[in-house]
Please model this.
Amino acid sequence: DGGITQSPKYLFRKEGQNVTLSCEQNLNHDAMYWYRQDPGQGLRLIYYSQIVNDFQKGDIAEGYSVSREKKESFPLTVTSAQKNPTAFYLCASRGGQPNTEAFFGQGTRLTVV
Amino acid sequence: AQSVTQLGSHVSVSEGALVLLRCNYSSSVPPYLFWYVQYPNQGLQLLLKYTSAATLVKGINGFEAEFKKSETSFHLTKPSAHMSDAAEYFCAVSVGANSKLTFGKGITLSVRP
Model:
């Protein structure tokens, strides 16, 4: 089945540690996105990539990093510089045209203690 | 820059009553508009989308939305609410060729028996 897979579903880390969230898609989509979701704040865009080996900062990129070495994969690293990393993280992918919908993974809930 | 406004964070209706969730957009060029639904601890699922064809768009689970350019609105409706409609609903906008998808803050729909 085609889809987008995020792993793990739940992740716990100690403060000060970097952590990498996985996102893989087999939909052959060019564009991939990372969003952060906090209660009452909707989805805020962290990074997005429209093509392999290229990505752009979203609205809240500070403290995060990404790579896009393969079309299928767009991992997100939450660094120790992110001051409030505990949140629900959603990955999405989309075809290249602006009239196409995004497909979402099931999310990763990160808790930093 | 594109943006979406979803007024109110919570809507409560009785089972069988009309559901109306409001979405207004801001865009300097013709937009593409989307409604998504999210159940707890899950990713987002597309309900429907407007891509400049028909202004009245029908989606899954009995939902529909009407694009009104004069009001810059894309409100979501359902004639008769069901308990299973209780979820969070997000409106999103995309314009131009950069494929960036911008979300509103979301509305939580509660359905009373």
